[in-house]
Every structure is written in C-alpha cells, then in structure tokens.
C-alpha cells in the first residue's frame, strides 16, 4: 500500500543555517550544490544570446539530460525518453537513474529528456525521433502547446506499438491518447463510458474540479483495482501508481517508478522479480516552509511552529508585521527544485514580513487559497497581500482555466494579488540578452491568463540553469518583488490618515497648455471629485480648494502655461548631488542626455518637480518624453532613455515625498512606454527603475485595453477603468439636413410631374455637400428614367443615413459621475443592433426586418447599393429601434433622468405583454407584429446593460486599491460589442492572446475583405488587387476579438484552427476553389502595442504567409508566391525570407513618430518623414527564428510595399474618429507606397468602419 507521510524534509542544522543566511547572497548562491544530475558532456555548449544560434527562444541542449550507462555483459539496457514542459524533473530523474545504474543487478538504464519547447528546432526534433526508434519507455507530462503536442504525437505514434510502455500524464487529449501500458490504453479517450474515461471527459469540458477529482482518483483507485483479477485492471492500477510516483517527484519515487514499469513491461526483464516500494505520497495541498520540520495541513499548527522559531529577527515577532501569502507549485518542492522559492521566503522575512507559503498538487489553487489564507471563523484574510510564484492562472494552470472560480476565491480573500514569473522556456542568459523579454508562449500562459484573474506585477524572479535545468533566484528581481509585495500589503495595514498618495497628471503634447489632459476625461474635475471623496473617507487632504477651477489655478498659475515655463508651480528643487544619490540609474541616462541637470525640468542648477501638495496628497505633473522638437532623436530606430527631469520626478515621489501609492490619472502617460524589454523586465529596463517600489494605481479609459495592458505589465499598474463619454448620433448639419428634406419630398411626390425637378435639386445640393466624392452622381439637367432617379436618390439617402447614424462621444467624462439613462439611449440602440448568437439574443433590427418578411443583411446590402425601397425600410427600422429603446428607458427612469430600481421595473415590464413599453411603441408602426418573445429577450438584456452603464464604481475601486484590497478584473474594449466591459471601475485586462481570431471575428472579417476586394475590383477595371498593405492595432483586435487579424488570414486564403482548449496556434490553407479568387499578398504593419500583446499571433501570421508562399499553385492565383519568388531572385535570398510580410517597430520601441515630427515642424520635406517611417517600422518578425526579436529587414519591407495597390486600416470604435488620434495618420503608408512603386501611382486607400452592425468600406481620404 502507498504510505501517506507529511514530508521527508528533515533539515540538518548546517542546511538550516545556510538557508537563514541566504538573503545577502548573490543570485547563484541560491542553486543547491548537493546533487549534480549529470557530468557535463565534452561538447558542452555555451549559452547563446537570444539573437543568435538557431534563433529560437531557447538554445538549451537535450544532451545535458542524456545518461548513457556503461555496458555490462548479460545485463539488458532499458532506454527511457521523456518530454516535459518545465525542467524541474530533470535533476530528480537523472539522480534516480544514476542511482539505479550503480545498484541494479538486472538492468542498465539509458535516459534522455527533452523540454517541449526544444522540439521547435528541426535538428532537435530529428534527434528526438531517432531516440524514440530504440526506446523502451516514453514519458510525457504537461504538453499543452498544440503545435508541439502534434509534433510529439506524430513522432511517438510511429513507435507506440513497438515500445514496451507509453506513459503520458496530464496533457492535451491528442497526446493523452498515446498512453499504453499492457492492455491499458487511452486511445478511446473521451469516448468510453467507464468512470475513468468520464473523468478525462470532464477535463475536456473544462471542469474546474478536474485536478481535485484526479487526485482523489489517484488516492483511491489503486486500492480498489488491486483486488480485481483482470490484467486490464492491474494495468490500469499500475498507470495510476505511475502517476502517484510522478506527482511524488522525489528521486526515491522516480527510482521506484522506473523499477516498476521496466520490471512489469520490458520483455527482456520478464521473469525477473524487481522489487519496488509503494509511492511515498505527499499532501495534495498544504503549507511548506524550508525551515519547518514537516508540511502542515492546518494553519494553526503552522503558526504554532512559526511563532516559536528561534532563528527569526525581532520584526517577525511583532503582532502587526505584514503577512505575505505565497502560492507554490508542489512539483518544485517534491523534486527538490525549490531554491527560488526559498530565496523569496528568506528575502521577505529579512525585510520583516511573515510568510505563509502554500502549495497544491493539482492545477487548482483556489481551494488552498481559501483554506489557508482566510480565517475560517471571522472570514477575514490572515495575509495582507498574496503572491503566486507559479506564474500560472489560479485555476487550471497551463491547461483550461476557470477564471470565474479564481475571481470568486480572490474576492473572498480581498488582498492585492501578484503573479511573479519564473523563467520556463529560456535560460537566465537568454532572457537577459533578449529584447523581447519573456518567451511569447510564456507571456500567453503566465502573464495574459493570470491577468484575467486580476493578477498584477509580472516580475521575473527566477532563472533557469541550462545544464541542470534547476531554477535559481535572480537576487535583484527577488528584492524588487518582495519589497513591492510588502508595500502593497502595507496599504492594508496603514490608517487612511497616515497614507500618502501622489497623483500624477500628464501633459501631452507639451508646450500647448495641455497640462492635465487624458483621453475622454475632464482631468481636474475628476481629481477634485477624487480628493473630495478621499477627504470624506478620512485621508489627510489639507487645504483642498473649493472647486476644480481653483485647483487648476494653484497647480498651473496660468491656464495657458507652456510646459517649460515657470508658470507651473514648483513643488521641489532637487540638487544634482541629491538627484544622483536618490537615482541609482542616473549614470545610464547620460549617454543620451549628458550630465545632469540638463535643460528639461531644470533651472540650470536644479531639477524641478512641478506640482503641489495638499496634506498627504501630492498632485504632480509628469515630465514629457523629452525628444519632442528634435528630429534626429525621432529618426532613431529605437527610442532614447528618459531624461534626468523624468527620473528626478519619480525619485522625488518615492524617496522624498515617500508616497505609499502613486495614482496615474487618465490615458496615458510616458512611463510605460520607456525603453526596456517588452514583457518580463530586468532591473536595467527603465519603466522598472522609474516606478521603483511604489504601488501604482492607474485610471485608464475602458475602451483602450491594449495600452492599459502595457501599463499593467511595464509599470506594474493596477489599471482601473473609467467610462468614455456617452455617444450620440451625429445628426445632420444645414446642407445635409436640407438634402434629407428634399429626399422626403421626393418620396411623397416622385410619381407627380415634380419628381425630375426634385432629383435635380438633390444632385446639386449633394455636390455642394461634397457627396459626389462618395456617391457616383450624374450631371445636373441630365434626363433620367424613373428607375435611375430612384437609384440616385437611394444612393444619396443611404450616404446621409450613414452620416447621421454615426456615433460621436459627447463631452468629457468625470470620474464618479455616470451618465444619465437618457444619455445612454444611443449606446443601448447600438448594443441592440448586434446579433449575439452565443447568448441566443437576436438583434433588434433583425427582429423588426423579420416581421415584414425580410432578412436584415439583405436590407443592409440593398441600402448600401442605394436601392431606394431598402434605404427607406432601413430608415424605418432604425427609427423604430431608437423609438422602442427610448420608450423602454423612459419607463425605468425618474423625472431627473436617473435610473430607479431597474430590476423591479424590469420584472413588472417583462411580466405584462401589452404594457411592455417597446410593444406599445411598435404597435403604432409597421412592425407591430414583431416576435414578442425575441423582443422580451433583447430588452431583458438591454435592461441589464442599462444597469451597468449607469452604475458608478470608479471611485469605489480606487478606494479598494488604496486600502490594499482586491480590485475585480474585467475586460476592456467597446461596451457596444462587449457589455461585459461595464460597469467601469474594474482592473482592466485584455484577452487570452491565443484565443483570437474567434469564429465570429472570422465571419465578420470575411465580409469586410470581400467588400474591400469587390470595391477595388470595380475601381481597377475588374482586376483583383495583388497586394494590400494594412495596419494591425492592439486595441481594435481586443475589441473585435481579432477581426483585423482574421482579415489578413482571409486575404491570403487561410483559416485558423482552434485546439481543444479554444486556442488558435495553427492555420490551414483554404482551397482556391472555395476561396473563389486569387490569394492576395499582404504587407502587415503592426503597432508597437499589437507587437507586445499579440506576438503569438504575429508568429501565426508569419507562418501562414510563408506556408502560402510555398504552396505549389499557379502564380496568377497566388500573389504571395508570385511576389516572394520575384523578391527572392532580386535579393538572392530563399523564398521563406522573401515572404517576410509581418513588420513593426524594434522591440521596446513604439510608433513611427511621424505625428510628433509634424506637430513640432521638425521636418523639411516629405522624404524625411518617409525615411523616418522606414527606419522605425521596418523590423520584421520571423517565425523561423522567433527568439531573435524584431530584426531590421528594410530591403524586403521596401520591395513588398512597392507592389501594394491598396492601403487599408480599420476603424472599430464609435469613440474615436480618424481625426481624433494621430495614430491612424502616423501609421498610414499610402504616400510611402506611392514613392516606392515603379509607376509612382498612388494606391487606393480604404478604411473599414465596423462601428455599426452594417460594416462599411470607404475611401480613407474622404473621411
């Protein structure tokens, strides 16, 4: 029988002393020295930087995991090949095998191990396949990356029947099906009716309890199966015992595992009785401390031991010491790969914090968090902050996550939740040398997914040794993590009256009276609202003025003050010596800015900090980037460092004002865009140095999740969303209004003699309004048939309806002032206009069209073509939708326009058929027969949305963050597409980057691409465009779940394939027959933000384009191949390199800076701007060498652009129009393409407007 023990970790005195002294050691002192897993091979490799070697993310060598025994006469050799996600088993398994080779009389053991990520390399994969050819046993564990899972499956499948045993522990179903142990097999996984297989089916369905169920099964099944006589039962029992041994992970457990499997299934050992012990089982969940004599299952027992320790300093004995909860992976503890955990525990304790380190054996940590971090009686947390050192989502790890369950557990805990990251796929040196920082797969699994739980601060705290595979602490990073975890915890402990807060406002663009600007936000009115609330809540806000205007006056003496003028209030003058003492990285800034103080934020002698303090609240003005007005700096392909004034500001906030937290106010500042690694920064990265140890809270616009995510990852911010202003329909101005009236006259008088005269007036008025740029109008006075007259009027009517219904944001938002219900009507109308099949909600226009016997898509299509009857019908549907929604909203509001008891009102409204306000309204229209049930469903949904729109949680969430509480996470994006964005006041996250494009996004993308291609074909004498140059933005891909990404895939004729967990890591070509047109070449320019958030998808795009270039198809049907072959010949490179089409800025750099140059007039001719664009945007992503970062490929970029006939961008959001933000202009390559084309022909330039249900493709320059 398996024995259940608490832990074999009994410490010698010398080890305990060694651990106690760890805090002052360098990072490599955290490596355990007692066991060496293998002797280094003679050809032991040197670690290469991430931009060399094979260009992959890791150049570790599987040979360091190979053990070849000395041949012995008459003793068979058993060969074991294993593949694992992480390297923690390497040392333990190597030790087990070496020990067996010394002591076993019956067999010698050869073993070789591969990390799943290494299999990307062709040579390594070939070696793996060769190793399998003579392997007896294959072991796989945690293989959850689909493209690599398929490679493993393909290789093992060929040898499966020949091998003696195949053991795969939790992995993707296609790999799990490889399991084979005697008569036990999982080839039918997910289909069998047996309870064992039903368990795995539950996993497939995403049951959060899968790990727990599996652990219970592992505990009980061997006892049951032992007494069943059949071979199948015994084989199943040995599989479960194998899993117990594997989860046990210690060298002893793994030694017995190898003995059991080889003795039971290797034919050469048949008849030899190999004795093995039962697995030593550890607690499934518990508390582990490296100095404790045992693992604990009870918090009280743990505290009893903790409080009687003799090795602790006095600060740990204080009752009010900060308590930090740590979440650990059990596999690291049982395999002895725990030195990085030990380092964090010792560092926290050395800094006076108590520690509760918990672990779980499965992938669900929510149970242990509730069990060990929350007092069972008072339900209050016993920790002040929680840090997960696993790097994974709280529930589900690298497999299928259950974020709602995680959020529920973290809400009960209600403390700041940090998820730090141990390097998994890279060695320490590779990470240090990489401009990207973390490996993209690790960003997806260990940064993006934990963010959906509400996690913050993805600080890399542990590296990996390339030889032993063991983790080691990175001392400076551990220090940063621990101090920040304690500082977040102190917010829970400190009183409000003693807490200090630094509110930071921005000034962009500078020198134009822009102090205190932010997207959609009235900054000073909002700050005043926040300060008033803080004062009411007990914070010291001494001397707060009476109103927001006076507040502005006190910070900016002259409201039109230039940024560099003395009219900004100087809060502090920092001498150069003081600045250098307080700013350890000051020397690193001198290369770009010379000696301090410099001439920015300086009076020539001192560095100036602008702002003003009110009691314990300081309102400061963040300095600007500093390179405005300097054309040479703008031309750099990579950005410069922050200037001395910028660094001095943050040194003042942290070390002189001594802020307990900083609140960055509004979208957005410069801190998060400073140079450094994209994700997973080192201490040499500027955002990390600048923010220092201060907890950072950041108000960010709800509709901008992409840049909010950059702020979250690069400035360690708790990003709290605020609402964008309510949108209204644009309406019509004088000329267009007159045109609308003429059209109404035509509708009633078209069959009289006045019809032609009115059409003539419509044509002349339309030309006066410049509509002839969008609508093909005949000459005035030309004789037209009644059909042609209808056609002209239909097209003009369609255009003015489109203009009238565009949404425009009204005014600026003030934090804490939600919109009134009537202000929300236009937003609700647009929410109602979208079909939501996943929620079984039909769009309101669709319901109305249906009741008059039409499909809404046909109406949209007819209206776009200018068919007058369809334009009229669409107008009626639109008006009826607005009227029905307005009638509904009026019933749920009081006389002041405030929503009152929506849920009660809704219950009564939905309960009575005839009294339903929308039914009453529609009864007077032609849509009186609309389906009541469908209407009730859509209005029930709108009622929920209305509640969320008017809910105010922005101030409440700020208070929670400042009190050291958990701020509930929520998606950012467009509230019309995704009402889950509401209510605001959530900790914004983006989405799982591997989950896009979704099926719905692909469907929308196809419509836009077909409309774009048809439009260009019409304007290009029936020819298809050969190349389209387009821009991918981070925010619009989050809002639309990857629509523009889907557009690129559909242009080249491929479709994305989702894996079992819904992640998109593969594509397949669509046949030319199905596509019905040639494959169109693309040049994709990704914004810096898209590059940071969706590097996996850049990898996917590059793989897709190169795959299409290599398809054996006629070049007239495959323009990607046509151009790649031409460019390969011209440049003397292979076709894959010539098919490079995915470009962006250099790693860690953002934007083309065209708009900055234009704004500051720092250019002389257009060629200068084009050179700037080329120098900053010509960095390519290469899926054949994804670890190499962004490599400059200017020639390929220029040649690819020179074939473009069309340029294209997406406008995805009603809050932003083309002229609102400079990004659209900054990234538009139209003029550059014209200069690069041999014929100098200007390409057609289009924009897709998907802000409404009826997507439009329009000329860019006519916007």
Automatic annotation (TrEMBL):
Q: Which reaction does it catalyse?
A: protoporphyrin IX + Mg(2+) + ATP + H2O = Mg-protoporphyrin IX + ADP + phosphate + 3 H(+)
Q: Which pathway does it take part in?
A: Porphyrin-containing compound metabolism
Q: Where is the CobN/magnesium chelatase domain?
A: 244-1259
Q: Which UniProt keywords apply?
A: ATP-binding, Chlorophyll biosynthesis, Ligase, Nucleotide-binding, Photosynthesis
**Catalytic activity, EC:** 6.6.1.1
Specify the Magnesium chelatase subunit H N-terminal domain's residue ranges: 79-240
Q: Which family does it belong to?
A: Belongs to the Mg-chelatase subunit H family.
Kindly provide the name given to this protein in its UniProt entry.
magnesium chelatase
Q: Which species does this protein come from?
A: Arabidopsis thaliana
Q: What is the lineage of its organism?
A: Eukaryota, Viridiplantae, Streptophyta, Embryophyta, Tracheophyta
Q: Which gene encodes it?
A: GUN5
């Amino acid at each position: 029988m398996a024995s259940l023990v608490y832990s074999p970790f009994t410490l010698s005195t010398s080890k305990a002393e060694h651990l106690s002294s760890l805090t002052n050691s360098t990072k490599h002192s955290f490596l355990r020295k007692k066991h060496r897993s293998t002797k280094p091979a003679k050809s032991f490799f040197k670690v290469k930087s991430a931009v060399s070697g094979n260009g992959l993310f890791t150049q570790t060598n599987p040979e360091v995991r190979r053990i070849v025994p000395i041949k012995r006469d008459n003793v068979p050799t058993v060969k074991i090949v294993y593949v694992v996600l992480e390297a923690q088993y390497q040392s333990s398994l190597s030790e087990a095998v070496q020990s067996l080779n010394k002591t076993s009389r019956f067999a010698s053991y050869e073993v070789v191990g591969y990390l799943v990520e290494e299999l990307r390399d062709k040579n390594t994969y070939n070696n793996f396949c060769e190793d399998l050819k003579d392997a007896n046993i294959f072991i796989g564990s945690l293989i959850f990356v689909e493209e690599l899972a398929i490679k493993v499956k393909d290789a093992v499948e060929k040898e499966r029947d020949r091998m003696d045993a195949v053991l795969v522990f939790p992995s993707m179903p296609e790999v799990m099906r490889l399991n084979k142990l005697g008569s036990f097999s999982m080839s039918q996984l997910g289909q069998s009716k047996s309870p064992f297989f039903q368990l795995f089916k539950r996993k497939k369905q995403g049951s959060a309890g899968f790990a727990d169920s599996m652990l219970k099964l592992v505990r009980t099944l061997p006892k049951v199966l032992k007494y069943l006589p059949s071979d199948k039962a015994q084989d199943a029992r040995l599989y479960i015992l194998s899993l117990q041994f594997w989860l046990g992970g210690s060298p002893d457990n793994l030694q017995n595992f190898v003995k059991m499997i080889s003795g039971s299934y290797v034919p050469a050992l048949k008849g030899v009785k190999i004795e093995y012990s039962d697995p030593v089982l550890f607690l499934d969940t518990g508390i582990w401390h490296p100095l404790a004599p045992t693992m604990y299952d009870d918090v009280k027992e743990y505290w009893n031991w903790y409080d009687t320790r003799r090795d602790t300093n006095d600060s740990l004995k204080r009752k009010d010491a900060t308590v930090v909860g740590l979440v650990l992976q059990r596999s690291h503890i049982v395999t002895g790969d725990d030195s990085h955990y030990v380092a964090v525990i010792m560092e926290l304790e050395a800094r006076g914090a108590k520690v509760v380190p918990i672990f779980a054996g499965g992938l669900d940590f929510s149970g242990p968090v509730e069990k060990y971090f929350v007092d069972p009686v008072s339900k209050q947390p016993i920790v002040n902050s929680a840090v997960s050192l696993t790097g994974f989502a709280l529930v589900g790890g690298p497999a299928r996550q259950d974020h709602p369950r995680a959020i529920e557990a973290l809400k009960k805990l209600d403390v700041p939740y940090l998820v730090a990251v141990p390097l998994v796929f890279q060695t320490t040196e590779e990470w240090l040398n990489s401009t990207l920082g973390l490996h993209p797969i690790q960003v997806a699994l260990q940064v993006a997914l934990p963010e959906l739980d509400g996690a913050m601060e993805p600080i890399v705290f542990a590296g990996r040794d390339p030889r032993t595979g063991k983790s080691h602490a990175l001392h400076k990073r551990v220090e940063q993590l621990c101090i920040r975890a304690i500082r977040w915890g102190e917010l829970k402990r400190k009183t409000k009256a003693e807490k200090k807060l630094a509110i930071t406002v921005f000034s962009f663009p500078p020198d134009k009276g822009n102090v205190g600007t932010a997207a959609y936000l009235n900054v000073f009115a909002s700050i005043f609202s926040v300060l008033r609330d803080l004062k009411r809540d007990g914070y010291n806000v001494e001397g707060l003025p009476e109103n927001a205007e006076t507040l502005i006056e006190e910070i900016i003496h002259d409201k039109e003050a230039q940024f560099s003028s003395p009219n900004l209030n100087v809060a502090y003058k920092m001498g150069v010596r003081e600045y250098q003492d307080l700013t350890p990285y000051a020397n690193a800034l001198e290369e770009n800015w010379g000696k301090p103080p410099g001439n920015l934020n300086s009076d020539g002698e001192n560095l100036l900090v602008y702002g003003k303090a009110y009691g314990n609240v300081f309102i400061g003005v963040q300095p600007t980037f500093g390179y405005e007005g300097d054309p040479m700096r703008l031309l750099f392909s990579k950005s410069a460092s922050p200037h001395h004034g910028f660094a001095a500001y943050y040194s003042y906030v942290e070390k002189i004002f001594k802020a307990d937290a900083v609140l960055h106010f509004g979208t957005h500042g410069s801190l998060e865009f400073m140079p450094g690694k994209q994700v997973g920064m080192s201490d040499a990265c500027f955002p990390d140095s600048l923010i220092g140890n201060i907890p950072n809270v950041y108000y960010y616009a709800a509709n901008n999740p992409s840049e909010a995510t950059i702020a979250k990852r690069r400035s360690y911010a708790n990003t709290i969303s605020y609402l964008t202003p309510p949108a209204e329909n644009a309406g019509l101005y004088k000329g267009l209004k007159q045109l609308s009236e003429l059209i109404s006259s035509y509708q009633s008088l078209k069959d009289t003699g006045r019809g032609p005269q009115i059409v003539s007036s419509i044509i002349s008025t339309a030309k006066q309004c410049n509509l002839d740029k969008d609508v093909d109008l005949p000459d005035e006075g030309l004789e037209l048939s009644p059909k042609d007259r209808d056609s002209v009027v239909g097209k003009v009517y369609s255009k003015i309806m489109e203009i009238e219904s565009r949404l425009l944001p009204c005014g600026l938002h003030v934090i804490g002032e939600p919109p009134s219900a009537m202000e929300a009507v236009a937003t609700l109308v647009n929410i109602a206009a979208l079909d939501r099949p996943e929620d079984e909600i039909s769009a309101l226009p669709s319901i109305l069209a249906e009741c008059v016997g039409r499909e809404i898509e046909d109406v949209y299509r007819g209206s776009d073509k200018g068919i007058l009857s369809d334009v009229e019908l669409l107008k009626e549907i639109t008006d009826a939708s607005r009227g029905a929604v307005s009638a509904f909203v009026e019933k749920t509001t009081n006389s002041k326009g405030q929503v009152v008891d929506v849920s009660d009102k809704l219950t009564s409204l939905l309960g009575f058929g005839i009294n339903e306000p929308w039914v009453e309204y529609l009864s007077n229209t032609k849509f009186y027969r609309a389906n009541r049930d469908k209407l009730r469903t859509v209005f029930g949904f709108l009622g929920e949305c209305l509640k969320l729109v008017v809910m105010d949680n922005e101030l409440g969430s700020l208070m929670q963050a400042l009190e050291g509480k958990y701020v509930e996470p929520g998606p950012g994006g467009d509230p019309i597409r995704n009402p889950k964005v509401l209510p605001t006041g959530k900790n914004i996250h983006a989405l799982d980057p591997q989950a896009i494009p979704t099926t719905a996004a692909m469907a929308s993308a196809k419509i836009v691409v077909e409309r774009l291609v048809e439009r260009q074909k019409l304007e290009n004498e029936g020819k298809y465009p050969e190349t389209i140059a387009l821009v991918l933005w981070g925010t619009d891909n989050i809002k639309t779940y990857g629509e523009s990404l889907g557009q690129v895939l559909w242009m080249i004729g491929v479709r994305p394939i989702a894996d079992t967990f819904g992640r998109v890591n593969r594509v397949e070509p669509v046949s030319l027959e199905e596509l019905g047109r040639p494959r169109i070449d693309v040049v994709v320019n990704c914004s810096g933000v898209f590059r940071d958030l969706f590097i996996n998808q850049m990898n996917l795009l590059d793989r897709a384009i190169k795959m299409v270039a290599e398809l054996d198809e006629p070049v007239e049907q495959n323009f990607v191949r046509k151009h790649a072959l031409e460019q390969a010949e011209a440049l003397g490179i292979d076709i894959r390199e010539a098919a490079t089409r995915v470009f962006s800025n250099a790693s860690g750099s953002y934007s083309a800076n065209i708009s900055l140059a234009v704004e500051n007039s720092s250019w002389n001719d257009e060629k200068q701007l084009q050179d700037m664009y080329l120098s900053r945007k010509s960095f390519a992503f290469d899926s054949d060498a994804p670890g190499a970062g962004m490599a400059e490929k200017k020639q390929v970029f220029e040649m690819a652009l020179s074939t473009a006939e069309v340029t294209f961008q997406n406008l995805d959001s009603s809050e932003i129009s083309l002229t609102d933000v400079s990004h659209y202009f900054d990234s538009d390559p139209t003029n550059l393409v014209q200069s690069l084309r041999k014929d100098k022909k200007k390409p057609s330039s289009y924009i897709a407007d998907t802000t409404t249900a009826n997507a439009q493709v329009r000329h860019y320059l006519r916007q």
